[in-house]
Structure formats: C-alpha cells, structure tokens
Design goal:
heterodimer; A: about 575 residues; alpha/beta; Rossmann fold; 3 domains; 6-stranded parallel β-sheet; 19 strands; B: about 170 residues; alpha+beta; Alpha-Beta Plaits; 2 domains; 5-stranded antiparallel β-sheet; 4-stranded antiparallel β-sheet; about 25% helix; elongated
C-alpha cells in the first residue's frame, strides 16, 4: 500500500517493522509517540492495525498487559526513547512477574549517538534486562524482521513473558530491500519440554495413595488453557482446590471443591486444608511468599508435587518430592488417561467441616458507613461471572479476590506478583479493547485510581464502556491496616489530608459519575453502574477502618492467623 | 560449595550482560567469569565459577538455562573437563633477588613476561590451584599488581562431534 515507487522497491526499517507486526497478526498497539519514533509512527499511519494513543506510557504498558490477559494474545506497546522507554518499566516488571506475553517496542537515539548521553537517551536495554523474558537492541536494520519474529515467538511460548525490542532512529530510517522472513529457530530454547514418563508415573502413584490431596492452582492453568482437563481431574478424583490471584476462575469459585484464595488473606479453610493435606499438587504456581509465608510450616505433612513449564520454579522455595516439567494441559491430559478415579469421602467431609467452622468473615452492615465488602459482593451478584473484573492493588483487591465469584479463566485480572498500584484503570481499558463483547468492571481503590487517572481521557476518547467502582476509604487502606496491627496505630503517611472530588474529575473527562455514601443505596447503584451505557464511574465512600481478614502476618505458616 | 559452569551462548550483543545480570540479581556469588570465542564464530563459551549453598547452586544452573541466548549450560566436575587459567603477577624485586624468583617460576613452568630494574612480571599458566601456589610462593616478596583471567574450561566430551547441538 505504501508508495515505494521512488525508492526502488526498498523500504524503511520502520515500514519493515510495521509489516512484521502485521505478519504477527497484531490487531491493536498501545503507545505514545516522541521524537525518535516519529518515523515509526509515520509508518503506522498506513498500518492495518489500530493504534491506541494513551495519556502516559505506563498506561500503554498496563493496557497492553490487560489486553493480553483478557484475550490470551500477545499485547503490544510502543514508546519513544529515554523517558518514554523508562515509563514502561513498571508495566514490563508487572508483566514479567505474572508471565504475561508482551512485546514492547522502544525508539532509541541513532546508533552513532548511543553512549554519548544524547538528548532523550536511556539505556533501556540495560534497564529492562532483569524485568523481561528477553530483550534486543537492534543494531542492524537487516535483522529487524527476524528479531520481531523471535520476539513474538518468545513472548507467547513456553513460560510467557515480556520481550523488549529497542530500535534506534537510524535503523527506522534505513532503506533496504526486505528479505523474506526465515523460520524462527532458537537453539537451546525448549518452550514445550517433552513429558517424562517416570515423572508422570510417580505423580500418578502418589495420587493413588493420597488420602488428602489438595490442588494449588496458579497462572500456569490459564496460560496453558488447561481448565477443562483440570475440571475433570479435580472432580473425578475428589481433589479440593485453592486458587491464587493468577488462577482465579480457572476452576469455578462456586464449586463445592473450590476453597478460594490461599495464603496471607486467603480463606481459613484453604490454609487449614493445605496444612492438613498429605499431597500438595502445585499446578503452575510458584509458592510465592504471600501464599507460603513460611515454607517449613506450609504443608508439613504433605509430599509436594509441582507441575511447571519452567524447570527453574521447581524447588525454588519449597522442597519438591515429585517434580513434573511440562505444559500443564499436556500433563493433565496424560494423568487423566492413567489415573483411575478415586473417591475420597472422608477428606471431602473434612473440607466441608472446615468450611462450616471457619467461614469467610463478613462484617455486618449495621453502621452508617458503607462496608467495602458490600460493594464487592453487589458487583459479584450483579455480574455472575459474566464480566471481566479488573482490580487495582490493596485492600479492595483482596476483598475482590475473596468475594467475587469467578467461574471462567481470564475474567479476573489483577497484578499479582509485582502488586502494582495504578495497574487497574489502564488494564481495564486494554481488556475492554481486547474483549468488546464482555462487560468490564474495574474495582479500584482511591489511591491506585490516582496513579493512572489520566487514562480516563483514553477511555472517553474511544467510548470504552468500562464500569469503574472506586472503593474510596480516604486512605491507603492496606498500609493503614498494617500500621494498625503492627505499628501501634501510628498512621504514617497513609491517610490523605485532602481528597479530590472524583465525581468532578470524571465530569471533566466527560464520564458520567456519581457518589454513593448510603449503605442502602449500594445494590441499586451497582446495578445502575452496570446497566448504563458507555463509561461510568461510581465513587463509593466506605468505612476507612475496615480490615481485610483473615490475615496471616508476613512470614507466618498456614495456621498462624492474626487475631485482632 | 563452589561450582564450575560451562555455558555455550549465542554470540549476540548483550549476551554477557544477560549472564552477569542474572547471576547478580539472583544474589549468587561469582568467583570468576571468563568469556571468549569458540570454533564457531556464532558461539561464545563462558566459564563461570560461583559459590553458595546447594539450593542456590541448583537454582543458578536452572536460571541460566532459561536465558534465551544460552544454548547449553553444564555443571562441570573437574574430572569431566580440561581447565586452565592465566595469571600475570608483578613483583617488586631487587636485581640480586631475581634468581630466587626465577627459580620459583621455573618450578611451575611460569615465564617472565616483563622485567625492569626493580620489578618483574611473571606469566603463570595452569590450573587455578597452581596459580594459587605460585601466588603463595611469591607472597614473601612484594606483589605490586596481579591480574587473573578466571578459569576457562572445556568439557572433555567436546572432543566428540556434537554438531546436533550446534
């Protein structure tokens, strides 16, 4: 389509880059232009994909992440050199921690200027080394096509992750005859390690003799698309399951075998079941310290089986008796074929008993102030697993993880590993662009909301019907809670002295909004939020002193519940 | 415990940063790192000597294996590898004491790489243990400067044809 008549069939590096994105099947790119990428953006003018101009590069990175999590496809983000590139850092680290497939393309000063502290120069290659799965600095325009093909292949295969490609300005402007793309061959890279029969046989044998097996589910279930195999495996073998933030919904929360969240703010019954289990089946999770605060008192009576596509995760924090390296879907398919279903009525009775005895505590809604949990519950009841729920980070995130009934994968998006405040709003925007067919509801604290609030403009510009529920407690709730419990109520820098008027702010951005302060109004306000067209915002003023319970303090074992 | 790891990597810009960065950010202790060309210009061989406890040592190999530019990562036992190191040691020495040092050098097959009125530079080639011994032998004299390459190692089975991997 581009006019190449006066260039002798040659194309610019930027055009070749855009063609490589088109070849990779990219439909949407999130980004923000600047000097060293103007050439690239000029080529994008003719591209077949859509470019979403955000209001901050961090917003673009989280939006690409939300898009990737919601769709399972590789998210793409672009930024200019220097400050544009460094603004991607938090987004890349977030995606890296949660194994989200991203390709980030950054502009760079010309190769001849690299290392001279040129205007808007930053060594994003060096900066992004520890927070990407892999990264590239392209120094030869001939390699652009190949590098981009590799980047997409790497981002979306094996253990997924972000890939950064840094493209200097002279590489974008270079004129060359595009070479046909070669197949990607990366020696030594094994995205789908072959299953080992002995590992599978040992796992099947251990399962046969286990009386109290427990599945501990992580993001690997979503990444491998193993939810159907998982459902059969758990239900045919009477195996209760606890799901991390990254696995919420891969097994339906409303199933009798579902135990909810494990760890620090998990349900007591999930943690006690872990403690009493004789076989932990870790499926694509990684024994994060928020799940296993104290590895010695995590599951003292259990053998540990760990299925992971990343061999380096096995044995990293917890001694593993039964390692299984491989893609979870393939592993479960094989296990289903070899294992004879076993009924475990005694164990299920015990699980029921734990659920009866230690239900999730819910505060009575009797005071004049809205309890934040009641907002989350109303959203769960109104959406019934049909919406994509996106959260920010903090107390509201934990309440959402505890109370939202999620029944399908990719319907609960949250920054799990890095715990990035400011993630929610741009991620919800990306999710809505990726899944225009589904309602997207953002549950967000008043702290995190202000960290990428500028993306309200992008949401308005594209008329994205994201429904925003601010759980506004007028403070940094999680910090305040820790200060209450562990720092003698010395509320150092956690309670604002001034709170902006979010309703007016939303109005300024052209987004319909209202404030809700009465407990009796909550259900109706949530329904109105969901039923009104286009983007909508409701600012729920809630009780500042509500705490997330139960709680196992940092470093605690599964039975070390904090009692206030 | 100490561990010798041999890496065969793609000879790409930044590959050393990836290896060094990984080792640093995961908190492993690096005793030495040596990198250089191989028989194949597209490949670089890196020899790492790291120390730490057993879990750390198990992890370091697995994490290195994950680096995209790593083609092969091997834990090497000394019995499975040929190894060597080069050290340059400059010693302050009066002309009348030169003979003492040259005799020490002869014992270990070291040669004199540089010489002036008041000092002498020895080039020592051999196992790390041998280099250590020469340095111990020179300790009574004043060692003015020293440079060591760190260990380089080649798995013994590299003699066999392993084209399939390359």
């Amino acid at each position: 389509m581009t006019d190449t008549s006066n260039t002798g069939g040659k194309r610019t590096g930027a055009q070749i880059l855009v063609a490589a994105l088109e070849r990779a099947g990219v439909e949407t790119v999130f980004g923000y232009p600047g000097g060293p990428v103007i050439t690239l953006y000029d080529a994008i003018y003719d591209a077949s994909f859509k470019h979403i101009l955000t209001r901050h590069e961090q917003g673009a990175a989280h939006a690409a992440d939300g898009y990737a999590r919601a769709t399972g496809r590789v998210g793409v983000v672009m930024a200019t050199s220097g400050p544009g590139a460094t603004n991607l850092v938090t987004g890349l680290a977030t995606a890296n921690m949660d194994s989200v497939p991203l390709v980030a393309i950054t502009g760079q000063v010309p190769t001849t200027a690299i290392g001279n502290d040129a205007f808007q120069e930053a060594d994003i290659y060096g900066i992004s080394l520890p927070i990407t799965k892999h990264n590239y600095l392209v120094k030869d325009a001939e390699q652009l096509s190949q590098v981009l093909a590799e980047a997409f292949y790497l981002a979306g295969s094996g253990r997924r992750g972000p890939i950064l490609v840094d493209v200097p300005k002279d590489i974008q402007t270079a004129l060359l005859t595009p070479a046909p793309a070669e197949p990607v061959i990366i020696p030594g890279y094994e995205p789908e390690p072959p299953l080992q029969d002995d590992q599978l046989a040992e796992l099947a044998e251990a399962l046969k003799f286990s009386r109290r097996p427990l599945a501990y589910l992580g993001g690997g279930v979503t990444a491998s698309g193993a939810e159907e195999e998982l459902f059969r495996f758990l239900t045919e073998n009477d195996i209760p399951a606890t799901a991390t933030l990254m696995a919420k919904g891969v097994f339906p929360d409303d199933h009798p075998l579902a135990l909810g969240l494990p760890g620090m703010h998990g349900t007591k019954y999930a943690n006690l079941a872990i403690y009493e289990s004789d076989l932990i089946l870790c499926l694509g999770a990684r024994f994060d310290d928020r799940v296993a605060g104290n590895v010695r008192r995590f599951a003292p009576n259990a053998r540990v089986a760990h299925v992971d596509i990343d061999a380096a995760e096995i044995g990293k924090r917890v001694d593993t008796h039964l390692p299984v390296v491989g893609d979870l879907k393939a592993v479960l398919a094989r296990v289903l074929k070899t294992v004879t279903p076993v009924a475990r009525p005694d164990w299920l009775r015990r699980i029921d008993e734990l659920k009866q005895k230690y239900p999730l505590p819910l505060p009575p809604q009797d005071g004049p102030e809205i309890k934040p949990q009641s907002v989350v519950l109303a959203i769960s009841e109104a959406t019934r697993g049909e919406a994509i729920i996106v959260t920010d980070v903090g107390q509201h995130q934990m309440w959402a993880a505890q109370l939202i009934v999620s029944t399908r994968p990719r319907r609960f998006l949250s920054s799990g590993g890095l715990g990035t405040m400011g993630y929610g709003l741009p991620a919800a925007m990306g999710a809505q662009i990726g899944r225009p067919d589904l309602p997207v509801v953002l549950i967000c604290g008043d702290g995190g909301f202000q960290m990428n609030i500028q993306e309200l403009a992008t949401i308005r510009e594209h008329d994205l019907p994201v429904k925003i529920a601010i759980i506004n407690n007028g403070c940094l709730g999680m910090v305040r809670q820790w200060q209450q419990f562990f720092y003698k109520e010395r509320y150092s820098s956690s309670i604002w002295k001034h709170e902006p008027d979010f309703v007016k702010i939303a109005e300024g951005y052209g987004i319909p909004s209202r404030r809700v302060t009465e407990p009796a109004e909550v259900s109706r306000a949530v329904r109105a939020l969901l039923d009104s067209p286009g983007p909508q915002l409701v600012d729920f003023k809630v009780d500042m002193f509500e705490n997330v319970m139960p709680m196992i303090p940092a470093g605690g074992g599964q039975t070390d519940f904090y009692e206030c | 415990m100490k561990k010798m790891i041999s890496l065969l990597v793609r000879n790409r810009p930044g590959v050393l940063s990836h290896v060094a960065g990984l080792v640093t950010r995961r908190g492993y202790n690096v005793e030495s790192i040596a990198a250089g060309p191989t028989e194949n210009p597209a490949r670089t061989r890196i020899t790492l000597v790291v120390s730490g406890d057993e879990r750390e040592m198990e992890q370091v190999t697995r994490q290195l294996r994950k680096l995209i530019d790593c083609i092969e990562v091997r834990d090497l036992k000394y019995s499975e590898a040929v190894t060597g190191e080069v050290a340059l040691v400059t010693v302050a020495v009066e002309p009348e004491k030169r003979l003492e040092i040259m005799s020490l050098a002869n014992t270990f097959g070291a040669r004199i790489a540089d010489l002036d009125e008041n000092s002498l530079t020895l080039q020592v080639v051999g196992s790390s243990h041998m280099v250590d011994m020469v340095i111990t032998g020179l300790a009574p004299y004043h060692i003015k400067a020293m440079a060591r390459t760190g260990l380089v190692a080649l798995p013994i089975d590299s003699r066999e044809n392993r084209e399939s991997l390359l």
